[in-house]
Amino acid sequence: MTDAPASALALRRRFPASARLSRWAAPDGWSHRRFDWAAVRPVGRLLFQTGRADIIEKYLEVFAHLVERGWSVTAFDWRGQGGSGRLSPDPHVGHGGDFSILVDDLRAFWAEWRGEADGPAVLLGHSMGGHLALRAMVEGAVVPDALILVAPMLGLRLPFGPGLSAAIIGCMGSACPTRGIWRARESAGMHTRQRNLTHDVGRYEDEAFWYARHPELALGPPSWGWVAAALRSIGGLITDTRLDAMTVPTLMLLADADRLVDPDAAARTAARIGARLVRFGPEAAHELLREADPVRLRALAAIDAFLDEIAR
To answer: 183, 55 in Cβ contact below 8 A?
Structure first.
């Protein structure tokens, strides 16, 4: 592991004393794991939604930064991952056959959370969370004062081109929807996974740190059904004409070298919704907020400037 200052490791690998975990039940009774960290002198509130297979703990360093700047932060693990249960017989496979269920969860949570306090309310979504945040807003499920999308999943990097890949995914999604697209417990390719996510090895290893202490939170590959559902949801969103009528202030951060989601598809969407766009080059991988400091601090500076405008 790379060396890191003790203070940085403490932020990333120690649960903050003033934050709390609780449970939230969706309207159908599904139990979700919820996180809240209140700012001492809040200027507003921010709901942070992670990507596929992520957990709340991966973003404690980001949360600390936001709270220090006066934003009370809330998050919840999506249904089917983290501490919010599983949708597959194999707890290591991330399944989900219909993203509408996740949008409904966000709709219900947002309604309750928005009613808990006054002041500016911002929605921030990373990767899959960015896709779901934008879809929820387009569908009227959430009405934030501002939206931040970090490497949003508005297109997938597919190995055989869009046509053939979609055909394979559709076939496998129908034949074996809950089966992982790779072996759930295989360890090969971890170096590739690290490079796909972040150049910062220490921050990448934070994930293993938390899983060693809470193995029940770990999740492996997506299922074929999840990938098929993701393509359907992306296709539905980018063809939704309501995108062009969006007026909510939006900031979008993209990594041009992203190997997981398609930054060009996201940039086209940014143009349609009038988003403020910040792009990163080969120095940045998918997890911009967990990258090496030159990238991470630039991303946070863009978010800070945007939030300062919202808090005025």
So the answer is: no
> Tokens standing for 215?
């193995």
pLDDT in tens, 88-137: 999 999 999 999 999 999 999 999 999 999 999 999 999 999 999 999 99
- Full set of structural domains in the chain with CATH: 6-311 (3.40.50.1820)
The residues near 95 (Cβ < 8 Å, ≥ 6 apart) are 80, 86, 87, 88, 177, 178, 222, 223, 225, 226
Residue 141: closest CA among 110, 114, 99, 96: 110
Rounded Cα–Cα distance for residues 191 and 198 (Å): 11
Cα distances from 301 to residues 293, 307, 311, in angstroms, run 11, 10, 15
Cα dihedral 60, 42, 50, 230, rounded to 10, equals: 180
Distance CA 272, CA 266 (A): 10
End-to-end CA distance of the chain: 41
Residues 302/253, Cβ–Cβ less than 8 Å: yes
pTM for this structure?
0.96
Beta bridge partners of 261: 156
Pick from 196, 198, 104: nearest CA to 156: 196
| Residue 306 to residue 304: CA distance in whole angstroms | 5
**CA 23 to centroid of chain Cα atoms:** 19
Instruction: Classify strands 146-150 and 121-126 as parallel, antiparallel or unpaired.
Output: parallel
Question: 77: closest CA among 89, 86, 68?
Answer: 86
